Write the structure tokens for this entry.
Amino acid sequence: MRTSASYTQPVKHGAAPAVDNRNLARVMRAVRDFCRTAHAPITAFVAQTERDPYRVLTACILSLRTQDQVTAGAAARLFEIAPNSRALAASPVAVIRRAIYPVGFYRTKAERLVEIGRILQREFSGRVPDDIDTLLGLPGVGRKTANLVVTVAYSLPGICVDTHVHRISNRWGYVRTRSPEETEQALREKLPRRYWLEFNRLLVTLGQTICRPVRPRCDACPIERWCARIGVNERKRARRRLTSA
Ligand code: SF4
């Protein structure tokens, strides 16, 4: 089994570039500049939640395994019916279920949302907790959701690692990990704290527009010159080897 240190050791690519802490400031500046004008669903998501802890928490739960457009519609209907945890706790599960349909696992999510509303009322005076460990105690809340609440709603240190952050951090060659959980651990060790709050928003914007899971648009990418592109060009390189053999 690998130790956590091996996730953050420099990745060896011969003479190839890779994002590391020596060029990270330039990389982050370039991504930040790009994100100022990029139109990505993450921007709409943050705007819709208004950075309100209750809205960030519930919208993030809705977004799990659900397309962005579907999440946006379901969140708008949920906020109409249950604009706060008190209203959510008092809502029948069937009403919430109808409101959030067709998000993925809407039946389970409706039950969990109402349960969360009741727990918030009973144990936290209706307030969403601001620390990761307490948030993880709520039903259906994993590390991604907990980190998002802490960083987006409370502007407290945390690193929200979703599929985009996991994929891009590895493509950059900044970490080498096999799961979002490993990536969060690696980033907590390696990424300077001043980047923690914005890291998710910037990489999700990049992932939703340029560095997509399939056929990333490297030629249009603002950080192409630094990126190791781990796993991106392997098929292309193999094809080139075959044709030149
Ligand atoms: S689009 Fe290409 S160059 Fe840009 S971050 Fe993704 S893999 Fe790297």
